[in-house]
Amino acid sequence: MFKYENIKIELDESNRIATLHFNRPNSMNAFSFELVSEFCKAINELRSLTSLKCLIITGMGKNFSVGGDIKEFKEAKEPQEFMGKLADKLHEGIMLLKDLSVPSLAAVNGPCFGASLGYACSCDIRICRESASFGAAFAGIGLSPDSSTSYHLPKLVGLSLATEMILLNRIITAKEALQFGLVSMTVPDEKDFLGDVMKIALKISQGPTIAYKNIKDLLNNSYKNDLVTHLKNESEKIKKCAGTKDFQEGIKAFLEKRKPNFEGK
Fold it and tell me: Which domains does the chain have, with CATH numbers?
């Protein structure tokens, strides 16, 4: 289990947190077809862990990822066929990530470009180092976006800035990413970045798992549902949550003025 060359998985079994690393540091974690294929396999394996509470995604070394592997693009004998195949696999990874029942954190430890920007945007929460930077990069090599970049980025930062980033290759700093809502927080470079990310992951791992899954479903579907449909979904899901042990514990803890001990049941 979890034996990959381009992906590294670390499991904190006591806290039920998994950390997935893009593991091609010598290539700035470029997204080769093999890396993306391994990502899909890894997410499928992680989904089978019923005890999992939170997933962290980050990059090995100094980069989150520079996006697609340009060397692989150049060597493709049939560029259109290869790019279509790669995009399909990238999109399989996006859907697996979005359908994950537990919250996901993108821990952006450095430059985040191209397809990896779409992957970061697909996570539930994004945190970055102060030295991180973000860019779409597709148009710079004559491509339109993939990996949900043109879908998620406008919803996070607004259409105007997303257009600048995708059409004009604007690169934004960590400070700008925080200002525009692309990330939730930045961590000074001199601090323990993954340590700070882990604090948030720990908070999630101790939370109400069933409620978190319902929250993810509601937020993800809010893009496409009309208000009437969305309100119906809210009613159904809050009704289900009210039948959980976590809800009873939450009420009891509130009345007793203590921290709740949620069990995910």
Answer: 7-205 (3.90.226.10), 209-255 (1.10.12)
